[in-house]
Amino acid sequence: MGEICIGGDGVADGYAGDPVQTEARFITAFDGRRWYRTGDLGISSDDGMIHILGRMDTQVKVNGHRIECGDVASALLGIHGVNDAIVVAREDGAGRHLAAYVVTASPQTTAVALDHALRARLPAYMVPRAWCLCDALPRSANDKVDMSRLPAPQPLAADANDVCPAQSPLEKHVVAACDFAMSGTGAAHLGEDFFARGGDSLQAMAMTSRLSHLLGREVSVRLLYAHPRLGDLAHALAMGGTWRGRRHRSRRGSAGNRRMARYGASHRHGAA
Predict the structure, then answer these.
(1) Which of 10, 70, 90, 199 is most enclosed, with most CB atoms within 10 A?
(2) 3-state SS, residue 180
């Protein structure tokens, strides 16, 4: 897998009057031939066919997932009331994540509503964590979106309708682990996004470490990044069966086993 380049007699010498772009897009290979870098990502199959996977400049890797930003933007454009949209990857204290810039037809359209609609169309890891609703996307003279002029997006604000109290023992452990990692920020609930409420990478490690202790098995940071919404994280743990039946390894031997036994007993009594 790599960038698709084009060579041969039909390749031009460069961009007329634009030496900077020419140097960036044209290369001379080891065989002395001149090649044009298309910017498309492709892969060659066993039958010799080259399959285009998408643009290199819009395909990003976030938390181990390779995401085509154009696919997320297309899903947004398919939502009623969205006139224009672009999705980019941004970096901050909470790590790399997606941000959506959306032009809506009505000021009544909220980021929360768009988030809900997008979750019905895409996997959780493809849903942007930060949003910016604007009147128009900044564009350059050639009508391309000017990335340098995009304003800073905001984390998704919690919706009062999303305030879901924890019910099951598993859900209560997820919320408790979040509260432990983010003490002083108020009580968490299942409708919240861990990173949207201000969580960073260190707090993510603290939360998963605490959750591993509470559940008696290893919970990876990557799982939290894939399911940052607390309710989704609890659902993923329950559906995968990863929170029960497999005990967390402890160097303390029998003491660790006694703790796991106490957890199992309390869980059974709480579920009865």
Answers:
(1) 199
(2) helix
CATH of segment(s) 59-155 = 3.30.300.30
Q: What is the DSSP letter of 143?
A: S
Sequence-ordered list of residues with C-beta below 8 angstroms from that of 72, at least 6 positions apart, any chain: 87, 98, 100, 118, 122, 126, 127, 128
> Which of the listed CATH numbers 3.40.50.170, 1.10.1200.10, 3.50.50.60, 3.10.20.90 matches domain 160-271?
1.10.1200.10
* CA 121 to each of CA 52, 116, 194: distance values in angstroms, whole numbers, following the listed order: 23, 9, 21
Query: How many degrees, rounded to 5, is the angle at CA 47 between CA 43 and CA 50?
Result: 30
Q: Rounded mean pLDDT of 137-151?
A: 85
What pLDDT score does 158 carry? 58
pTM score over 0.90: no
How high is the pLDDT of residue 129?
85
